[in-house]
Amino acid sequence: MTSPPSAPETAQQKKRYVRQMFNSIAHRYDFLNHFLSMGIDILWRKKAIKKLQVSSQQKVLDLACGTADLALETIRQKGCAVVGVDIAHRMLKFAKVKIKNDPQAQKLFLVNGDGEYLPFAADTFDGVTIAFGIRNMGDMPKALKEMHRILTPQGQAIILEFSLPTFPVFRFLYLFYFKRILPAIGRLISKDPSAYSYLPASVEKFPTIAEFEEQLIRAGFGKAEHWKLLNGVAVIYRAVKTS
Q1: What is the pTM of this model?
Q2: CA-CA distances (angstroms) from residue 33 to 88, 193, 241?
Q3: Partners of 85 in the beta sheet?
Q4: Could you tell me the CA-to-CA distances from 17 to 165, 207, 226 in Å, in that order?
Q5: Is residue 142 part of a domain?
Q6: CB of 223 within 8 A of CB of 31?
Q7: What is the rounded CA–CA span in Å between residue 56 and residue 59?
Q8: What's the count of helices (H) and strands (E) in the chain, helices before strands?
Q9: Which is nearest to 212 in space by CA: 163, 167, 166, 174?
Q10: Is 3 part of a structural domain of the chain?
C-alpha cells in the first residue's frame, strides 16, 4: 500500500488511491469505525437520518455506502427503499455479509459505482445521503452536482462529514488524538500503513463549513444548513434541490 498522494494530486489519482485504500481495509472497517470513535459514529448516523425528510414510499440513494450502516439506519427510521453505491467492491462484499440475515435488507439494493458518474437518470431519488465520504471524492464539486442531478425537485441531500473543533483546548486535544493516536491504532489493526494517516490529512484539507455550504449552492442546491456535532468534530449538512 502506497502513501497518500502528495499535493498537487489529480482527481483520478485520488480516486484510484481511495478505491485501493477502502478495498484494503474493508475487513476491519466497521470495527475500526466504532472502536476509534468509541461508538459515537453510530449516534451521529442516527442524528443525520433524523434530518432527512422522506416518506416510506420514497427512494433514497446512499452514496459511498461502504458496509451499509447509513443505508440500514435510513430503512429503520424511514421505512423507504435505499440504493447504496460505493466505488470499492470489497466494501460492498462485507456489506452483503452484514445484511444477509437483516430483515431491512429487503429494501436495500447495492451497486458498485462511481459517485461522480452515477448510473441513474435525473430526478430519480427523493433523498441522497453520504456519511464521511464526500471528502474522498476525486472531484467533489462534480459529485455534488451528480447528487443534485439525481434528486427530484424538493429532494434533500444529507451529508455527514468530519470537521475541526472550534474551542481551542478541545481542538488541541482532538488534533493530538486525531494525528498521533488514531493513525497508530488504525495501522496496527487494519494492517494498512497509510489509511488512517490519510484520514486526518483529508479532514484538514476539507473546506470550512461556510465554504462547503457555498459549494452546495454552486452545485445547484437552493438552500443549505448545518448542525455541528461534538463542538464541530463532525457536521450534518442538509441541502434542498429547489429547482
Answers
A1: 0.90
A2: 17, 17, 31
A3: 63, 111
A4: 27, 20, 29
A5: yes
A6: no
A7: 8
A8: 10, 7
A9: 163
A10: no
Which triple of cell numbers denotes residue 131? 456519511
Q: How many domains does the chain have?
A: 1
Residue 4 counted as domain residue: no
The answer to whether 238 touches 158, Cβ cutoff 8 Å, is yes
Q: Is residue 159 part of a domain?
A: yes
58 pLDDT band, cuts 50/70/90, is very high
pLDDT beyond 90 at 182: no
Print the domain residue range for 137.
11-240
CATH code of 187's domain: 3.40.50.150
Cβ distance 115 to 64 under 8 Å?
Answer: yes
Q: What phi, psi does 63 have (nearest 5°)?
A: -90, 145
Residue 159, classed as helix, strand or coil, is strand
pLDDT at 100 > cutoff 80: yes
Q: Is the pLDDT of residue 82 over 50?
A: yes
| Largest Cα–Cα separation, the chain | 48
Distance CA 154, CA 146 (A): 15
- Single-letter amino acid, residue 47: K
Burial 1-20 (b: 16+ CB within 10 A, else e): eeebeeeeeeeeebbebbbe
How many Cβ atoms sit within 10 Å of the Cβ of residue 153?
11
CA 196, CA 168: separation in Å to the nearest integer? 24
Give the single-character DSSP code of 191: -
